[in-house]
Amino acid sequence: MKAEILTIGDEILIxxxxxxxxxxxxxxxxxxxxxxxxxxxxxxDREEILKGLENASQRAxxxxxxxxxxPTKDDITKKTFTQYFGVELVLDEAILVDVSSxxxxxxxxxSQLNKDQALIPKGCRPIRNKSGTAPGMWMQKNNVHFxxxxxxxxxxxxxxxxxxxxxxxxxxxxxxxxxKTILTQGIGESTLAELIEKWEDGLAASNIKxxxxxxxxxxxxxxxxxxxxxxxxRETVEREIEKxxxxxxxxxxxxxxxxxxxxxxxxxxxxxLKERKQTLAIAESCTGGYVSSLFTAIAGxxxxxxxxxxxxxNDAKHELLNVDKTIFEKHGAVxxxxxxxxxxxxxxxxKSDFSISISGIAGPGGGTPDKPVGFVWIAxxxxxxxxxxxxxxxxxxxxxxxxxxxxxxSFLRKFVLKSI
Amino acid sequence: MKAEILTIGDEILIxxxxxxxxxxxxxxxxxxxxxxxxxxxxxxDREEILKGLENASQRAxxxxxxxxxxPTKDDITKKTFTQYFGVELVLDEAILVDVSSxxxxxxxxxSQLNKDQALIPKGCRPIRNKSGTAPGMWMQKNNVHFxxxxxxxxxxxxxxxxxxxxxxxxxxxxxxxxxKTILTQGIGESTLAELIEKWEDGLAASNIKxxxxxxxxxxxxxxxxxxxxxxxxRETVEREIEKxxxxxxxxxxxxxxxxxxxxxxxxxxxxxLKERKQTLAIAESCTGGYVSSLFTAIAGxxxxxxxxxxxxxNDAKHELLNVDKTIFEKHGAVxxxxxxxxxxxxxxxxKSDFSISISGIAGPGGGTPDKPVGFVWIAxxxxxxxxxxxxxxxxxxxxxxxxxxxxxxSFLRKFVLKSI
Lengths: 420, 420
Fold this sequence. Notes:
The structure is a homodimer of 420-residue chains. Chain A has 16 helices and 17 strands. The first copy, chain A, is an alpha/beta fold and 420 residues long.
């Protein structure tokens, strides 16, 4: 079963909006064994949409269309659908009730524009929208399925999870697709490739495809396969993973099981602390709340996170965390001495088992020849021992914040595991 | 000049990676007057890439290809290029020097795999990669330009900014494209459409296209036009904007000038404080550092941001910010009384002009019938007056954190402007 994802939207063609719908749809389809063979984005233009539908029908069995639906004037998917399928619009009573109650519940009038949301192409299977007003549309032409949903991510996800995906799973026989990704840190893509070259050469024989996915501070190795026997293909991949791990052991920090959230380094570290029933506090200056927010974004973080302090000025470091003023005079705020004090004091103040402290120069301003932009000190403490390390990142402020956060959490993880 | 953006990458088709390269490229092309007519994503497969190149050449004058380049085994763009253009690979000495020095500078050996990066298709104009090793490739076939760059965002951006975009601007005569976007908050898409219906009907006569771009907590109204006279098309759009603003004045909080960063509510608020030479401190519980990080992500935030505290437990609220324990007993941590105390005390402690405080239930756990998941109290203070408001958001933790942050910053902005 091959699928194409067709997105309609000028706002995407001019780069004003990132196409996040597509990523999510692709993940979901892959999870149920549907292979996405193509993605395309076209303009909010009748001719372009018609060409897009026609091209997609040549490549795929199922075409998922997002965008071009909704109550405002630039929505033309529905009209173009009627042209492509050669049918007229008819009123769907159930959808009319849905649309009307959406507005009535909110104490608002139901305008004609809104009522027209309940007009759907004849022969279409409408899909109810419980979070918004534009219904989805499922139509078939020459054995190709066309499933159209609104562009608003929240509404589209709900529709897919509640109705569309269950229907597809129930109505079609699908092969199994399996992926597993090894998460590595501290090694570059080409060096990694050289270490595992022989093993990689052997994968094609097991019908496994390997992809390298580099990103700041991490290289992911994705193994992918498909087949009819779910258990067998899973075992094949797991066996290959067992072969390669010893070759790159020092750099592996986790795995990504397909269909599950990619375990970020903070999630892995948070789970580690949770297992050990231990807690964390953070004092972060240049990362300004970002590292704390990474932990608190995780549901249940109150089990491990006691709190954080963002002492953005020297005054704040002194007032909130008792950093001695002589440290600023002798060594400056971006120093080993400062982060050692910050780590020890935030841990004591918040009464946590562990702490992280960070002080650096995110940029673009603030650098000096001794301490250029991107220079950062990070410390970790457990009350008995406090260790500090310095790092030199680059020029870009936001990239420096991300790299610093990754380095800090990684440092903490290894500290907790006592491997340093 | 029409362009297509072709992305090569299985990792995108299975939804493991969001295609951020494409957004950025589209923005840049649009800025210089090149119209992106189509975007496509194909598999890391020779046949699919060849079809992708051929289809793109039918639709566009310029095809931007991303992905499929780099030192590891699954990179096939270069080989497919040679097949599509019918040429062989030749060694480029300048690129070889670049690649070799990349590794030598880092104290690493230059492997054969790396040296092969310097092989490029005959007749190709190579584009140096100063942040990585894979060079970009610029080739022409039948008046269509094919420009291929590595998939790593950082490397691709550098190559575009340093060489490719300047070359395009210098070598081609391009029309002008102009966009301006009105940022509104606190009004739904369909209600907005009804308010401005008559004005919208008049836009086609000025060759202006209007698009509605809804997202959590905001609806953007984008006006777009193109033409040969840069000044004239700009004036036409500005004139239309002047006409519509009075109709929706209460909801407008800013503008997005195309080519500039979209001014987020936190950037607008930060600039407001900077203009007034005033400062801010934040005490945030359920948003856990996120709001502080929004401000500190902005370069120069140390001009306005004094610091933040994430008092994630009741103990922390008491120890760090002197919230009286009786407040927890009588009203709970998620209460008007608690946020009033947090706002006043963090402002006093960090000696800022303004403060924000937040206490709520992000979810998914922690809700009660009285205070369900998504229930949040927010307060703002200026030392003389402290105001508090409660909000009811939804079930999704991360969405709640974002909505709460938007509401908090918006609340502060209006408070600073004394409009509430």
